[in-house]
């Protein structure tokens, strides 16, 4: 077991990474969802639907349980360069940022669409 393996399995290290992610999450989500390069939440939802993730998007917009999306799937839709740039800007490992976005994007879409649709201009 290498030092990185032992760090990844260390609860204190994992907790610190989680806190770091939670601390910058609002800024990262705001940047991704309001980003001119991504076109905002509506554009990201459209990209996800075009990429074959319509069932997930429908679950996020509707009432009930949100279907998951993997970090790799989301990174493919957003673009590796975008995710890398955000990770560098907020000094978060790319894999961790992708995982945080995959966990939080469904919640953000769900909260932004209380009536089952995104508001105009989202």
TrEMBL record:
SUPFAM superfamilies: YidB-like. It comes from the Bacteria. This is DUF937 domain-containing protein. It comes from Bradyrhizobium neotropicale.
């Amino acid at each position: 077991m290498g030092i990185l393996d032992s760090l990844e399995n260390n609860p204190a290290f994992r907790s610190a990474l989680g806190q770091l992610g939670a601390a910058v999450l609002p800024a990262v989500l705001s940047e991704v969802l309001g980003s001119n390069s991504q076109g905002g939440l509506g554009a990201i939802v459209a990209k996800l639907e075009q990429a074959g993730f319509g069932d997930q998007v429908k679950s996020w917009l509707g009432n009930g349980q949100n279907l998951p999306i993997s970090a790799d799937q989301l990174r493919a839709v957003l673009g590796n360069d975008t995710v890398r740039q955000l990770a560098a800007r907020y000094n978060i490992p790319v894999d961790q940022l992708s995982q945080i976005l995959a966990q939080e994007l469904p919640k953000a879409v769900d909260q932004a669409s209380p009536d089952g649709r995104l508001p105009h201009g989202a």
